[in-house]
Design goal:
single chain; alpha/beta; Immunoglobulin-like; TIM Barrel; 3 domains; elongated
Length: 680
């Protein structure tokens, strides 16, 4: 990537001084209130190209350095405001080892000397200044004379808007937006609760649908995505949508996980206001929005955070801690207070300015362990001789405590794949404080089990049932994510054995198992209709497959499973409680029939789930249950509308009391081949 680019997006309009002044007067966050608050710090020399000006108090600087300032997005970056009745833009950037910092951009012909910022005299390393008559929509960078005289052109770490790649400049822009989701914000605590249905549709915005399906250079706008995606997620019955990283990133092939703009929605699809409007539309449709967020590593692009002022500013200087061997990127220095303030401010920014309902934190395992993907000699133990990154642990606990303190009705979710204890337990109990954790063990065991030829499943039943041995250790989310359908792992449909009919039947059982297993759910886009190709970020999903009854039937099955999950309290109100699940029958290994019960707060809500994971129809199958004698079939994965045979079902269920003291009943059922049924 070039270190800077003098082009800007053609759809970005500059604003004149009069309109800037008008907008600033209306602003509730900057302008008059901030001017009054910091009036004693202002000094204006109207003869200078850059006026001396500050938004920082001594307390701000102290908290920034101590790692306890979590609203830095209100101070750093660019702010359009008015000084001495003159509209312009205030800039502030942290470059502690720089000897000179200037703002260079279109407004000055990319001159690197004419608009220098002034460094604060408090050793904070903060450079700042006010450029009069500079409005919104201007491309800019910071020209930095760094350590040992190195010259750098860097984007703004706190910018709210960037040029569309491959251009790399930041753009003067604010996030002002007139939100219309008050009703959602008022009730979202109920929707985000651990005892509520929580079903997530994971989406990569660029490749969900494209204007030209096989052209990676074409994107739908945020407005076009909204028009198509919101009603689709609503139709499918998911309670939440999760976006793979929308934060600005230079390389499409990173899927957003190698970010440069931690405070900016990507400009690939439009402006920050366009992004806010999309979130607003989801909220008005009653759907929560979760964001993937990556505090574990960042890329080495010349305009990004790496070696920001010629030194290891944001990353560890010791590459045993500072370099990520898996992703060829760099690891944040969690020990440095300014970096910790930067990261927590970023997470808080998305919740504050864009009404985010959940933060899914990527690659938590790599943050916690000093020896992650490192051999002996490639890492150094901590001060106690262990492999835990004590600084990262402190950062994570502070992150979760801050977010839940300020936004108690959201969820934070950890992608963590090891046996590290108490990931989703409160910090006051010695936990890391996440609300939920991805259940990677369940995912691997389940896919391994269903990948088997049915004749061999009888020998691997323990792998199937093992998840409930440790389920209550954490608040688990069951993920069938993007990682499972790329890099030669095959799409979900082709992980299943057998002919075409058997593949679809197996996948319907798997999804039934997922939606009736305790825990929240996550399904990656395309999984819901049985994509036949691995996911490819360069193209769009195979929507043409829905012309086939088999794929349309699978999609409808997932839709109905979402409805079952939302409408049956037994599937969610005790989903993280030991009393919410019971194995009823695991004693028919040779037939590979598995039976379990999901329990609600009321016995009348209990559900009985029976999985027949072999291609053999079983008539008059006996099951013994306690407490209730009358049952009805409320779901059958073999229904014709799901592309099943539809010829094995249970309109009337025979029931016989066999032990009155224990209220044990014998019920007889017809079990479809490779089928799952749910009774109530």
């Amino acid at each position: 990537m070039p270190s800077r680019n003098t082009q800007t997006n053609t759809n970005i309009k500059k604003v004149d001084v009069a309109s800037t002044n008008k907008r600033v007067r209306k602003s509730k966050k900057v302008g008059t209130e901030l001017m009054k608050k910091y009036e004693e710090l202002h000094f204006v020399d109207t003869n200078q190209a850059v006026w001396n000006y500050s938004l920082f108090t001594e307390k701000d600087v102290r908290n920034f350095q101590n790692g306890t300032h979590y609203r830095l997005y209100e101070l750093f970056g660019n702010k359009q405001l008015s000084v001495n009745d003159t509209a312009g833009t205030y800039f502030a950037v942290w470059a502690p080892n720089a000897s000179f910092v200037a703002v260079t951009g279109e407004f000055n012909g990319w001159n690197k000397e004419t608009h220098p910022l002034k460094v604060r005299l408090d050793s904070s390393g903060i450079w700042e200044g006010f450029i009069p008559h500079l409005g919104q929509g201007e491309a800019y960078k910071y020209h930095i004379h760094g350590f040992k005289g190195i010259r750098l052109d860097k984007g703004d770490p706190y910018a709210n808007f960037w040029e569309k790649r491959p251009n790399t400049a930041s753009i003067t822009w604010q996030t002002d937006y007139d939100w219309k989701d008050a009703e959602w914000m008022k009730v979202r605590k109920k929707h985000n609760a651990l005892n509520a249905p929580y079903s997530v549709y994971e989406v990569h915005l660029a490749s969900w649908m494209r204007p030209n399906k096989n052209d990676e250079e074409t994107y739908n706008t945020y407005a076009q995505i909204t028009e198509r995606l919101v009603p689709y997620v609503k139709e499918m019955g998911f309670t939440h949508v999760e976006f793979m990283p929308v934060m600005e990133h230079p390389y499409d092939g990173s899927w957003g996980y190698q970010g440069t703009g931690y405070f900016a929605p990507t400009s690939r699809f439009g402006t920050p206001q366009d992004y806010a409007s999309m979130v607003d539309a989801f909220h008005q449709a009653g759907i929560g929005v979760i964001l993937d967020w990556v505090p574990s590593h960042f890329p080495y692009d010349a305009h990004g955070l790496f070696m920001f002022d010629g030194t290891h500013t944001y990353e560890y200087a010791d590459m045993r801690k500072g370099f990520h061997p898996d992703w060829n990127s760099y690891i944040f220095n969690y020990k440095r207070g300014e970096v910790k303030s930067f990261l927590i401010s970023s997470a808080r920014f998305w919740c504050d300015k864009f009404h985010t309902d959940g933060i899914r934190v990527d690659a938590v395992s790599s943050m916690l362990r000093l020896d992650y993907s490192r051999n002996a000699g490639q890492w150094e133990p901590n001060e106690y001789g262990g492999n835990g990154n004590i600084e990262a642990i402190a950062f994570i606990t502070d992150l979760n405590e801050t977010l839940y303190r300020d936004f108690p009705d959201i969820q934070t979710i950890a992608e963590e794949a090891t046996d590290w204890p108490k990931i989703s337990k409160p910090t006051f109990e010695g936990g890391l404080g996440f609300g939920m954790k991805w259940m990677m063990g369940w995912m691997h065991d389940t896919l391994d089990y269903f990948n088997l030829d049915p004749i061999f499943r009888q020998f691997q039943q323990d792998k199937f049932s093992f998840s409930m041995m440790y389920f209550y250790d954490e608040n688990f989310m069951l993920p069938l994510s993007h990682d499972e359908v790329v890099h030669g792992k095959s799409p979900m449909l082709y992980k299943m054995p057998g002919d075409e009919w058997q593949k679809f039947a197996n996948l319907r059982i798997l999804y039934t198992y997922m939606f009736t297993h305790p825990g929240s759910k996550l399904l990656f886009m395309g999984n819901e209709f049985g994509a036949t190709n691995e996911w490819n970020y360069k193209s769009e999903l195979q929507w043409e497959l829905l012309e086939h009854l088999s794929h349309g039937g699978l999609k409808y099955c997932v839709q109905q499973l979402n409805a079952l999950y939302r409408n049956e309290p037994a599937l969610y109100e005790n989903q993280f409680e030991p009393g919410g699940f019971e194995w009823v029958d695991l004693n028919h290994r040779s037939e590979s029939v598995l039976v379990y019960m999901r329990k609600g707060k009321k016995a009348k809500d209990n559900l009985l789930i029976i999985l027949n994971v072999t291609p053999v129809v079983r008539h008059d199958w006996e099951i013994f249950v306690h407490g209730k004698g009358k049952w009805k079939e409320v779901f059958n994965s073999n229904a014709t509308e799901y592309w099943g045979t539809g010829d094995v079902f249970n309109p009337i269920i025979s029931s016989k009391l066999v032990d009155k003291p224990s209220q044990c009943y014998q019920i007889k059922l017809n079990l479809p081949a490779l089928g799952a049924i749910v009774l109530k």
